[in-house]
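Why does residue order matter? Because the sequence determines the fold. Keep that principle in mind as you read this record.
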Amino acid sequence: MDDEATIARGRRAMTDAVPHGRSGGRLADEVYDTLLGQLMSLRIEPGSRVTIDVLARELGVSQTPIRDALNRMEAEGLVVRVPHAGYRIPPQITRHRFEDMLEVRLLLEPAAARRSAERASPEQVTVLRRMLAEMAELEGSSGPTAYGAFGLRDAAFHDLVALSAENEVIREALARLHSHVHLFRLHHDTQVTHLAMDEHEQVVAAIAARDPDAAAYAMRRHILRSGERFRRLFEATTVEA
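Structure:
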């Protein structure tokens, strides 16, 4: 089921290290968590190169779970495959790129929320609420791994809204932006997760109430407020420079 697959894309166990002697799938999840924590804490720097053999030596595991974890991260926009050279961490987005992404999201996502209020099935509304519940569990957690996992669920939540809108063009366009991955890599701020939760709940409430105008308004307000929160990071950097 497409909804369940989207939820599964953001679901990861919260571990601080990579234990040995686990099954292949579980070990790949643990490697993923470790790499996600390093990525969100900037221990793996933006723009740097990562290779499977080096990571296997550092983590003390075989190359198979490393490869599985990196393939998963590539699908989520967390790493970029470089032919014959391993993988590369995407650079941080520029202020100009950030503003362009915000403009596109303001054009597409309120429209998706409006259509979702008109077209979402009761099952899809249930899945949206379940996603919010998973995000709420992570909101109280600390550390870069939990913060990164919240960011991926944030992306999955917006994808579910687009999915329930039944407009594949909007959904594909938003997926190509990988906007949440880029935004959550900018800064670790738990206030971001708290405020986003409240705004997401308003979007889902409007969709569940079958109120297209309220859903579009709630989504637009969420994107604008999110833009204000992350824009401060660029402004702070400019002042410090």
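Residues 86 and 232 are 34 Å apart (CA to CA).
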